[in-house]
Design brief:
Elements (H helix, E strand, L loop, with lengths): L12 H14 L5 H13 L3 H6 L7 H15 L4 H5 L1 E4 L2 E4 L12 H10 L3 E5 L5 H9 L4 E6 L2 H13 L6 E5 L10 E4 L14 H4 L15 H6 L18 H7 L2 E5 L5 H10 L4 E6 L5 E7 L1
Helix pairs in contact: 1-2, 1-4, 2-4, 6-7
């Protein structure tokens, strides 16, 4: 009996996809077939639909070899977005690498909050790849948008995305948490919210590849939001943590704030918002019916 075809030795689309899907499935990859198709579309420059419609199409040896290399990277559980170098987010395509988190569909909820309110000035805290800020620049052209991050590497990715998308003039990127002496109508934040106790149970795509500092936030995952939503301190500013020393003043002037959270964190984050002066609080669920975004308004 002849050996099963491998991704490297395949000569047709059907053989390549079949071998890659089997290998990825055996390695525990959740969406093995989808990932196999995305990787083959990337190396061939064709759409997934056209590949599926033409399973007998031949693959040149060089393409088969490159495909095999990408499949092996996925077998090591490297995220597909890092392998192909891009990730779609709403209407834009973002370049991503290990300096930033892979943008998630649930984060689009924060963009929807902004589009509903149509604020004049928006602050995006923890911008990462620039997903939220650049999506708003694309869909809310009348707004002034400032995006911050404490990671120089993440800001480099975000600025490059802005330039590539032709949106560099629409978003101001700054290192840190909040710009001093400025006010905003709406503050958006997708800060670290993974609990240290949950880290070991996450998929290797997260724990072995994505930036740890953009994910972990203390024992229960709420440290970053406790700092962001700290109520105004009547004492000297030195009592506040330096990284967030200007945040309470910025929040005091904001009409609304919306943050992305992890499962089971909505009640406590909502209480933090009320303590910070946002009396009206709303919780929104993502497509998996998980409470994912907390919105606070004055």
């Amino acid at each position: 009996m002849s050996a099963a075809p491998t991704a490297i030795g395949s000569t047709t689309v059907k053989d390549a996809l079949g071998a890659a899907t089997d290998a990825l499935h055996a390695a525990g990859v959740g969406e093995a077939r989808l990932d196999a198709e995305v990787l083959l579309a990337h190396v061939t420059g064709r759409s997934r639909a056209s590949l599926i419609a033409d399973p007998g199409a031949g693959l040149p040896p060089a393409v088969s070899r490159l495909y095999g290399e990408l499949v092996r990277r996925r077998l090591r559980r490297e995220p597909v977005a890092y392998i192909v170098g891009t990730k779609g987010f709403r209407r834009i395509e973002l370049a991503v690498d290990r300096r930033v988190l892979v943008p998630r569909p649930e984060t689009e909820l924060l963009v929807e909050v902004a589009l509903e309110r149509r604020p004049a000035r928006v602050l995006d805290v923890g911008t990462g790849s620039g997903a939220i800020a650049l999506a708003l620049a694309d869909e809310l052209p009348g707004a002034t948008i400032v995006a911050t991050d404490t990671s120089p590497g993440a800001l480099a990715v975000a600025r490059a995305n802005a330039a590539r998308l032709g949106l560099a003039g629409r978003v101001r990127f700054e290192e840190g948490t909040v710009p001093e002496g400025e006010g905003f109508d709406l503050v958006l934040a997708n800060l670290p919210y993974v609990a240290e106790r949950d880290w070991a149970g996450l998929e290797p795509e997260v724990t072995e590849w994505e930036p740890r500092e953009a994910l972990l936030a203390g024992e229960d995952g709420l440290d970053a939001y406790r700092e962001l939503l700290a109520p105004m301190d009547p004492g000297p500013a030195e009592c506040l943590r330096p990284t967030f020393s200007d945040v309470p003043e910025v929040l005091e002037g904001a009409t609304a704030i919306a943050v992305e959270i992890g499962a089971g964190q909505a009640v406590e984050v909502a209480e933090l918002m009320r303590d910070a002066g946002f009396a009206e609080v709303e919780v929104r669920e993502d497509l998996a019916d998980i409470e994912r975004v907390v919105v606070g308004e004055r």
